[in-house]
Amino acid sequence: AQSVAQPEDQVNVAEGNPLTVKCTYSVSGNPYLFWYVQYPNRGLQFLLKYITGDNLVKGSYGFEAEFNKSQTSFHLKKPSALVSDSALYFCAVRANQAGTALIFGKGTTLSVSS
Amino acid sequence: KAGVTQTPRYLIKTRGQQVTLSCSPISGHRSVSWYQQTPGQGLQFLFEYFSETQRNKGNFPGRFSGRQFSNSRSEMNVSTLELGDSALYLCASSTGTGNAGELFFGEGSRLTVL
């Protein structure tokens, strides 16, 4: 069965420090991987995706993610965190099949302190 | 380009009632999918419609149903509401062709069942 795990419920970092939000996945075949961010009482906003090619993917707002096939991971990173990055982050996977359904992780709350 | 529009944004119902939620996708998008977000279960896929046909379905009881119209607008209906149906219901649209594309989410409809 396909699944996504975000092992940390919350990540706390100081503004200006690098941040990492972890994600591991389990899927048969080649995965399509996504990161989304959700601000309070809002929908999800797309940050970036990995489909194929370069393992380092760059996305919106200075975020990037590294795909690691051997470790089945897709960690989200940012070199320098901003207070405005504080939000709920979701990793998602789509198996290489027809349709657009995504399987989401439970989410990680990122808190950036000033 | 206008984003995904969901109506109503907030609604309160009582147990046993039914509810209909509406979603207008981004212009040109032919796929609409629905997700339920709750604190306990996180984000769960309900179903996806493409060109008026249900393409995928999640693991929800038959009380949850949906449809898509010829203009790609979609509705989802929940009958015989239960307290556990209280959730944020998110609609997402995509072009629907191929499965590498990201989903674009609406702001959601927050349903409270009393």
How would you describe what is shown here?
The complex is a heterodimer of chains A (about 110) and B (about 110). Helix content of chain A is about 0%, strand content about 55%. Chain A is mostly beta strands and about 110 residues long. In chain A, the strands form three sheets. In chain A, strands 2, 5, 6, 10, 11 and 12 form a six-stranded mixed sheet that branches. A four-stranded antiparallel sheet of chain A has the order 3-9-8-7, with no helix packed on it. The mean pLDDT of chain A is about 95. By secondary structure, chain B is an all-beta fold. In chain B, strand 7 and strand 8 form a beta hairpin. The interface between A and B is medium-sized, with 26 and 28 residues.
SSE arrangement:
The complex is a heterodimer of chains A (114) and B (114).
Chain A: E1 3-5, E2 10-14, E3 19-21, E4 24-26, E5 31-38, E6 44-50, E7 56-58, E8 64-68, E9 73-78, E10 87-95, E11 103-104, E12 108-113
Parallel strand pairs in A: 2-12
Antiparallel strand pairs in A: 1-4, 3-9, 5-6, 5-10, 7-8, 8-9, 10-11, 10-12
Chain B: E1 5-7, E2 10-13, E3 19-24, E4 31-38, E5 42-50, E6 53-57, E7 64-68, E8 74-78, E9 87-94, E10 104-105, E11 109-113
Parallel strand pairs in B: 2-11
Antiparallel strand pairs in B: 1-3, 3-8, 4-5, 4-9, 5-6, 7-8, 9-10, 9-11
